[in-house]
């Protein structure tokens, strides 16, 4: 039986966006899908036609069309992940929820499952906004400005980095290092010895952090080794190849 269960799936992917990890997830689930790619404008934002797909004009967006049912168009990476996992045999990428004999009991959840639920929301709720702040500060620092404003556009990002961004990056990276060190069953993934959907979800912001230079191997060896390993996995490689073929250019995460 086809993994799609009769559903047509279309992923709308903006270049240099978070859509790559959705492709990776669909590859792991053996789904057939159509990949539609869009180029950013000269100002770096999504083209107007993406608002015809979803009012916010963001990426990724996935549409699901099943026989005799209305089409669903879903935005937000975590929501897309949960929908795909719920409907297309995603159990293999979700840890066992309950300790044997404690099914349905509050507090009966496994450590692996509690981590999984946490990271499904932590990735976009706590970690990614910090990266967005860093990207915006880089734009202010490196962007064009009248000569008399250049001192300001240089000073403000440095103050933000010193007082806000770097202390928070240090806290988050230290936390992630400790999470990997204490992974259940001494596993090499966030939730244990098996790849889960949240490893896929977390991969993209970690790649961006590395590109921005805020994640460094000398300070976070375990986290960087984890990221290096994720990028060697077949699903990750297939997702990058699919994007490169669709866009006609080498993959750039940002």
From TrEMBL:
Entries under SUPFAM superfamilies matching the protein: GST C-terminal domain-like, Thioredoxin-like
Gene3D superfamilies documented for this protein: 1.20.1050.10, Glutaredoxin
Source organism superkingdom: Eukaryota
Domain GST C-terminal: 109-254
InterPro entries listed in its UniProt record: Glutathione-S-Trfase_C-like, Glutathione-S-Trfase_C_sf, Glutathione_S-Trfase, Glutathione_S-Trfase_N, Thioredoxin-like_sf
Domain GST N-terminal: 6-92
PANTHER family assigned to the protein according to its UniProt record, in alphabetical order: GLUTATHIONE S-TRANSFERASE 1, GLUTATHIONE S-TRANSFERASE-RELATED
Family note: Belongs to the GST superfamily.
Protein name: Glutathione S-transferase
């Amino acid at each position: 039986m086809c993994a799609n269960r009769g559903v047509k799936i279309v992923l709308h992917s903006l270049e240099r966006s978070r859509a790559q990890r959705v492709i990776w997830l669909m590859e792991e689930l053996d789904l057939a899908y159509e990949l539609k790619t869009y180029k950013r404008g000269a100002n770096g934002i999504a083209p107007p036609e993406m608002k015809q797909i979803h009012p916010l004009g963001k990426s990724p967006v996935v549409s699901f069309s099943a026989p005799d049912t209305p089409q669903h168009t879903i935005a937000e990476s975590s929501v897309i992940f949960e929908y795909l996992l719920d409907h297309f045999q995603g159990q293999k990428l979700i840890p066992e929820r309950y300790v044997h004999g404690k099914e349905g009991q509050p507090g009966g959840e496994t450590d692996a499952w509690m981590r999984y639920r946490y990271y499904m929301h932590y990735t976009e709720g706590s970690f990614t906004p910090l990266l967005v702040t860093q990207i915006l500060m880089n734009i202010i620092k490196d962007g064009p400005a009248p000569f008399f404003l250049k001192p300001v556009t240089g000073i403000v990002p440095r103050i933000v980095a010193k007082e806000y961004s770097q202390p928070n990056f240090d806290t988050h990276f230290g936390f992630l290092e400790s999470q990997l060190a204490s992974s259940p069953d001494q596993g090499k993934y966030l939730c244990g010895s098996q790849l889960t959907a949240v490893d896929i979800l977390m991969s993209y912001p970690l790649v961006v952090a590395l590109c921005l230079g805020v994640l460094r191997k000398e300070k976070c060896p375990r986290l960087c080794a984890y990221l290096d390993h994720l990028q060697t996995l077949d699903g990750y490689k297939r997702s990058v190849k699919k994007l490169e073929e669709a866009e006609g250019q080498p993959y750039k995460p940002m």
